[in-house]
Amino acid sequence: MTIIVDQPQFENEDKVQIPKNGEKSELVLDGGFCVPDANTFGHNFRDYDVESERQKSVEDFYRVNHINQTVDFVKRMRHEYEKLDKVELSIWECCELLNEIVDESDPDLDEPQIEHLLQTAEAIRTDYPNQDWLHLTALIHDLGKVLLHPSFGELPQWAVVGDTFPVGCAFDKSIVHNKYFVDNPDYNNPIYNSKHGIYSQGCGLENVMMSWGHDDYMYLVAKENRTTLPSAGLFVITYHSFYALHRSGAYKHLMNEEDAENLKWLQIFNKYDLYSKSKVRVDVEKVKPYYQSLINKYFPAKLKW
Ligand SMILES: O[C@H]1[C@H](O)[C@@H](O)[C@H](O)[C@@H](O)[C@H]1O
Ligand SMILES: [Fe+2]
Ligand SMILES: [Fe+2]
């Protein structure tokens, strides 16, 4: 059986159902990319409740993340990192640096980060051969995880990875492990805990502060280094971990028209980001010249980080 995924769409469930043992079925994305039956550990993708060793550490990750991501914290991080005074590196050098990094929030990934970047990019490239900006967006979408590296300040996991969400307004129920927000200082602050909080209807996501992490950081780096990527590419980078929006449809009241357009690309991108996590290795040396040509097209040779 072949299930075609309609795109783009809002899904209300937080995890994707995959076939039970023995049931043969596959999900086929737009251009024929086949979604694996299960993640590397034999579970549904993004199943945050399944009993496993990994589940416990992922839940603990979200507990600390939800307690510490506050308006004050995000403001401090933005101020610190917009200086871009840490290091000077090319995009590719940064991809290689990612290999030293482990993401403790991810229940699905068991490969080095560079594999994940290339698997995502190559899967999209097959299905959308003419959108070279989307191939490059995929290659760099998780590069901000270098924040975990000593030369970038060695931030703790909870300040770098995991799903993101707005701060400064109420935390939505659809956010993974949302029960831990009760211990966040902003949770009981009347300025921050209403539906709109410090924002207004349709204000545009650009004006909304997201929890600090690799998405926002990479957006900052790309923008300040004057990338020529289109706005949809920057949107994908900035909100790819915002599952409450792109999967559950929460916080739509903060979007403007441009966000709604860009969201369509994010929903396409997300399928590849999530389901290309597999054991199938990409031959890095073989694909490197292609990605290097895209880097040359859209970025300066060296970037300030
Ligand atoms: O655990 C994962 C991982 O950190 C991804 O890079 C991020 O984009 C996802 O939103 C998150 O769930
Ligand atoms: Fe990510
Ligand atoms: Fe990713």
TrEMBL record:
| Pfam families in UniProt | MIOX
* Reaction(s) this enzyme catalyzes, per UniProt: myo-inositol + O2 = D-glucuronate + H2O + H(+)
Task: Write out the residues that bind substrate.
Answer: R46, D103, E104, S105, K145, G162, D163, H240, S241
Q: Where in the cell is it found?
A: Cytoplasm
Query: According to its UniProt record, which cofactors does this protein need?
Result: Fe cation
Recorded hits in InterPro entries, A to Z, give: Inositol_oxygenase
In the UniProt record, the signal sequence range is none
Residues where Fe cation binds? H116, H141, D142, H214, H240, D273
State its Enzyme Commission number(s): 1.13.99.1
Look up the domain of life of the source.
Eukaryota
| UniProt key word Plastid | no
Could you mention a single GO BP entry for this protein? L-ascorbic acid biosynthetic process
Q: This protein is called what?
A: Inositol oxygenase
